[in-house]
Amino acid sequence: MDIFRKKPIQKSPMSGLKKDLKLKDLILLGIGACIGTGIFVVTGQASADYAGPASVFSFLIAAVVVVLNGLCFAEFASRVPVTGGPYSYMYVVFGEFAAWLAGWFLICEYMLAVSSVASGWSGYVQGFLKSLGISLPQVLRGGFNPSQGTYVDLIACLVMIFITLWVNQEAKKALSLNNVMVWVKFAIIGLFIAVGVFYIKPSNWQPYMPYGIKGVFDGAALVFFAFLGFDAISMAAEEVKEPQKDVPRGIIGSILIATILYVAVTLILTGMVPFEKLGIGDPVAFAMRFVDKGLIGSIISVGAILTLLTVSISMLYSLARLVYAISKDGLLPLSLAKVDDKKHTPQNATYVTGVIALFFAAAFPLNILAELTNITALSCLIMMSLGVLRLRKVQGKPKKGEFSVPLVPLFPILSAVTSLFLMTRLQKVTWIVFAVTVLIGTVIYFTYGYRHSLLNDKKN
């Protein structure tokens, strides 16, 4: 049994996917995936419960970790420009089993992200309907929880159906709504910054670090969630006109833009409102109500509801491409690698992942699993960091025109160490659930993936 068998380092053959994405589409895809609940919710939670006004440093620490990882992603995306992201990259440097684990971690990350955002979106919509005097039956208001009388989250079901059907369109069309909503998101954030800057009270920044340096580091582990999604760009490589040039630029560009926005919003938010009052579900809108700008707060609330769709669209888009890439190699059923002749999209993979995400969004309250998203993502990022070192050993330095991580091996090692550090800030129960997740993924590989891998045919 050879679980370290590798794929050759080469571009994929013609896949049938349509190549019409440009740099702008990639940056907007990354921002659409990154900036959602992070900027509208996590900014307040990090300030109230972890770091106070010093949560700005929590975002900067998390950003350093993400930028270091983004550099590793960029080199891989430039030198191995194929769909599948970390899964495909690990296949060519560490072998099949490592590739499967990377793919499994990403499947868990994206599935949870899509489902949880759909559930969160449902909560916002139900609150809006309630303000209009419209109320759903109790059994249709949330995931399976008989003690509270809820069994199915109807709104989450409906939004997942819409998102699945939308993502199944041609890539350019599927991401057009995402692009529009990202600009709406920019407008909302810009409105908050433009108005909020005039209501900053420096006294609200005191004490600046109420929970000490430990709170800042713990806050960094939390706000790392806010940056998840930049890797979605690497999943689209086979649909990009110039992947070697635009994918790295898209990754780094989206991370830098997201970091600037997170720091600006956090700085203004903690300057407008005493940090201990920000541990609520809508801190950005609350800040406007706090300074008697209720109308602007309402505009921000409605905009946040609309733009949360971009996270689900970006994540489901990437999840379908990931499953498509894994299926092409036989580690999942080959039927999931079928490309629709008219739309040039992985239709079966989109529908299957959409249905599974719908099931989780409708039936399960996913807040308990939030940290699992973080630990699986960080594990994958560690693999990517070490993978760059292996790629350099196997293939040498990048050629002219290919992106190169600076200061190798220092930066990749720093990337791995800082990711591991953030993992150590997570709860013990998260590590236990993570171990179970790894076990389930391992069982799937050895009972199905290894036996059906296309590399078996090449070996025979």
Q: Element order, helices and strands?
A: HHHHHHHHHHHHHHHH
Low-confidence stretches: none
Could you say which overall geometry the principal axes of the C-alpha atoms support? globular
Q: Care to count the β-strands?
A: 0
Terminal-residue CA separation: 13 Å
Q: What is the helical fraction, as a range of percent?
A: 55-70%
Strand content: under 5%
Report the average pLDDT across residues.
Answer: 84
Radius of gyration: 22 Å
Multimeric state of these chains? single chain
Largest sheet: none
- Structural class from helices and strands? mainly alpha
Give a written overview of the molecule.
The chain has 460 residues and is mainly alpha-helical. Helix content is 67%, strand content 0%. α1 (23-34) packs parallel to α9 (243-272). The chain is globular, with a radius of gyration of 22 Å.
Show the helix and strand layout.
Blueprint: H1 23-34, H2 37-51, H3 55-79, H4 86-93, H5 96-131, H6 154-167, H7 171-196, H8 212-223, H9 243-272, H10 283-290, H11 294-328, H12 347-363, H13 370-395, H14 410-424, H15 428-452, H16 454-459
Helix pairs in contact: 1-7, 1-9, 1-11, 2-8, 2-9, 3-8, 3-9, 3-13, 3-14, 4-5, 4-13, 5-6, 5-11, 5-12, 5-13, 5-15, 6-11, 6-12, 7-9, 7-11, 10-11, 11-12, 13-14, 13-15
